[in-house]
Design a protein that fits this description.
This protein has about 350 residues and is α+β, with helices and mostly antiparallel strands. It has 6 helices and 19 strands. One of its GO terms (biological process) is defense response to other organism.
Amino acid sequence: MASRCLKICLGVSLLFLIIVAVVIATLILTVFKPKNPNITVHPVGLEHFDFSILSNLTANISIGMTITIENPNYGSFEYTNNTGYVKFHDNVVAQIPIGAELVPARSQINEATYANLMVPKLINDPNFFPDLLLGTLNFTSTASLPGKALLLNIIKLKTIIYSTCHISLNILSKIYFPKSSNSQKPETMASRGFKICLAVCLLFLIIVTIVIVTLFLTIFKPKNPNITVHPLGLEQLDFSLLPNLTINVSLGMLITIENPNYGSFEYTNSTSYVNFHDTVVAEVPIGAELVPARSQINVTTSADFMVAKLINDPNFWSDVLLGTLNFTSTTALSGKARMLKIIKLKATAYSSCDISKIV
């Protein structure tokens, strides 16, 4: 029985570990799957713009920028120092320094920076003067930030951000028109992640419930304790025919109570009965006890026989002449089986034992 319970326990434990592994893998591949943070570049305006065609052609342009970095992950994102680039058509005409930062989980930060245009490269572009005459300069900013996503403050996963943003500058009014390529809405992503999290939690609760029910229907299922009665011998036997018929019999008994459950068994004061054929001829008091889990205890007691009922039984004298008295003891112990020191379940132990006594 112990071997069977051990196999069941190992099987349930293995199943539980597999389920936990599946749940963790599902969470990592859905809710905690690393997502690329979103970058949006907001030109603040022209900080400095000088343009002259007299004497020597000079142009100094400095554009102030605010970079918004949004982290949609359930872990923080930390990136190192990096550089963004501004392109005029297909030529890189400016570099944007981006300082190292830590973006907390599911939040965003704003970083102020600037872009100093490489004026010679800009004015040498064949599209520069036509755009200048039209009053609008069109740029494209690109950025990539490699870093690490930190999950549960333990797991570090490499990730990288990519962003492309189209910027139009109106030279006459210094108005900027940014058009970010990051069109995914944070509210939609948060809603999707919340639904996935709820689904995974519900699945986990169902699995845990199934495991607990399986355990209670197999390993922790309450079993009736086993009771065995061992007669120790006649403690007292008085028999006399003169002047009056008197018989006093006291029989010592040792009661062994075995608890096969994985929880303790506590029973109240009870009484066992000794039958002579079909007549109750003795009562055996059994005191309340606590039987620990998967162990047994011995209780010593005695049975005082109801002599009048015994000798009035039609089978008594015939059994005395044969030299053997045959008895049957019956016991029922009502109590509670306690699981994990919290759950209490009602249980009753039954026993029937045949006793033969040579007179």
